[in-house]
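The record is given unchanged here:
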Amino acid sequence: MEAFYETAAEDAERFADLARQAVAGGYSAFKSMAVPPTSVLEGIGPVRAAEQAVAKMREAVGPQIDIMVDCHARPSPTMGLQFAKALEPYRLYFLEEPCWPESIDALASIKAAVSTPIATGERLTSLNQFRDLFVARGCDVAQPDITHCGGLSSARKIAALRRLIVSPWRPTIRRDRSALRHRSSSAFRSPTTRSARPSVKMSLGAPMLYAISILSIAKRAP
């Protein structure tokens, strides 16, 4: 459901409609980009828009459906913290890339400031970057993109490094056949894949350039 990514954050009613459609279609979780692009520092307007959009989605589907929100690494650390705090009451499954990916200390600060799980990693390209992220406790959900981080062998090294801390494994990958073969191999061979929830079917609402998660390909909910 790419409309979750194509809808303007200010259109809260549209997000509510999309959420109802997802649940009616059998989804038990979905992800949206209900956070508008912002400059380094802005007023309350964008934060209120995001909060209203997520509030409408939560109201539409109730407390049992998992909602994920992707900031797409667009907010500055300052704005990312504001978005994270504003959306915390809605009990997101995770908040993805709340600020610039190279701002590892800021990611750690945002993670420490809210109870919402923080997801990031698809824009990191080396084992050293993931080491710094893990040491800083910068995320709850690690999302290496296998086509960015150096391929399957590098992804397995990242998975091994991840075992040093408690951080669920959510490898991501782009939509091409060669990458899909690596995705399948990683999904079934990674020693850390047991942290998945494979029975949940998720609607990611991902645009073409978004690297979809291995664990987002799951069975339709009963």
